[in-house]
Amino acid sequence: MTEMKAICCTKYGGPEVLEMSRINKPVPNEDEVVVKIHTTAVTASDCAIRGLNVPGGHEFPIKQFMRLGMRLFLGFTKPRNPVLGLVFSGVVEATGENIQSFKKGDEVVGFTGNSRGAYAEYKCVSNKEIEAGEMILKPKNVSHNEAASLVYGGVLATHFMKTSNIEIGESVLIYGASGAIGTIALQLAKHYGAYVTAVCSAKNFDLVASLGADKMLDYTKEDESNKLERYDFILDAVGENKTSKLKLACKKSLTTNGKYVSVDDGLLKIYPDYLPTLKHLIETDGIRAVIDKVYSLENMVEAHTYVEKGHKKGNVLIEVV
Ligand SMILES: NC(=O)c1ccc[n+]([C@@H]2O[C@H](COP(=O)([O-])OP(=O)(O)OC[C@H]3O[C@@H](n4cnc5c(N)ncnc54)[C@H](OP(=O)(O)O)[C@@H]3O)[C@@H](O)[C@H]2O)c1
After folding, report:
1. Residue 54 pLDDT
2. CA nearest 320: which of 93, 77, 39?
């Protein structure tokens, strides 16, 4: 059996529980393709799984119940699939005989849903996962690194903005506009024709302005709430664990029919149109990737340590090859 390099999560805990390992290279069955992974990303979700961190700022006993739920779902003492990693960009190396939609050599990008396994040199993707919309051809105009950094934020922003019904000229506020989800949400809101206020710290003002923000507010400043206007749609793009005085004030700044959505409102479900729509926008509308740092597979512990601090700009990537 041929082996491959993979990062395994040996138990729940800090970044140091991630270990470089050699495991069997997956062999596709007749309903699978095997992808040679070029780039994966370290997402906030990967850190949450590795650390068994409950989203949403809950207290005892809800937090303990939710942690128990996570153990039942993910694995009791460690993740059942020890190879984490939700997103990937790479090349199809081989296909099973029942695979019609992809061929050897295709450049692909994917969001693995619950199977994970992208912190490795190779990953199998099943026909069922392909039909569920978890892998498509990579957008032609971006590199593997750019593609891998667009997927997580792209899918989450698409999911949590789909009921926003933003119309041209409406006022939108993206809270946490400098993160993986925020950088795409901001660009989507501009694509829909909104006037966009981006909330981030002042060090990220240039970044969000370059993505199209019309106005910037600094969540670290005490008196920034005075500058809030009325918004037709507000997206909390960083989740309940990240808050500020300004965030609390935002919730009272909606228009009469305005809507406030948090990325922690329910669990993400990937629909088959998410990735194709994102690909179309990347190829035709110039939706841009924001890459903060790039690490090698060997430096995964360092990458997790950085992401866990909660202040990355856009995305942190792992180049596997
Ligand atoms: N519902 C679901 O199924 C689901 C699934 C996955 C993820 N999620 C949610 O999505 C979140 C991950 O979002 P992400 O990947 O976009 O985050 P991220 O990239 O890790 O966020 C980093 C950004 O957050 C900003 N930030 C830090 N503290 C902040 C605060 N108090 N207020 C405003 N901005 C702040 C930082 O800017 P500064 O450096 O300027 O502080 C940084 O640019 C998860 O934590 C979870 O809550 C939900």
Report:
1. 86
2. 39
